[in-house]
Amino acid sequence: MQSLYPDAEFIRDIGSGINFKRKGLQTLLDRLLRGDKFTLIVACRDRLARFGFELIQYMVEQNGGEVVVLDKTVYSPESELYCDLLSILHVFSCRMHGLREYSKKIKEDLSKVQPGTESDN
């Protein structure tokens, strides 16, 4: 993408398109709320935001900018729903795994603070 737009400012994020806490996305939203006008170029709309792409696009356009999506693939409504469902399941399973890890950490910390306390593993 850098070869196509050599003078552009790049904001890169690592993370899911469902995660709205990504630093780059928050930077983009802050600039939109300030009223900055710019052209937003994304490789794929799902990478920017799995849900809410149209809202971000609306905000960019209200500021006088435009959104350019390089991947022009058109998906059927059924295919989009299927991908959305898989994304939701993936996020849910990751959060459940995170809760289990968090629960284990709490039990470990409690056993350090309260000697003689057995964990329920």
Q: What do these coordinates show?
A:
By secondary structure, the protein is mainly alpha-helical. It is built from four helices and two strands. A two-stranded parallel ribbon has the order 1-2. The longest helix is centred in the C-terminal third of the chain and has 37 residues, at 77-113. The relative contact order is 0.10.
Briefly characterize the structure.
This protein is mainly α.
Shape: elongated
Low-confidence stretches: none
Number of strands: 2
Number of domains: 2
- Spatial order of strands in the largest sheet: 1-2
Distance between the termini: 49 Å
Can you tell me the CATH class of the largest domain?
Alpha Beta
Structural class: mainly alpha
H and E order: HEHHEH
InterPro entries: Recombinase/Transposase-rel, Resolv_N, Resolvase-like_N_sf
Organism: Dulcicalothrix desertica PCC 7102
Domain Resolvase/invertase-type recombinase catalytic: 11-101
GO molecular function, one term: DNA strand exchange activity
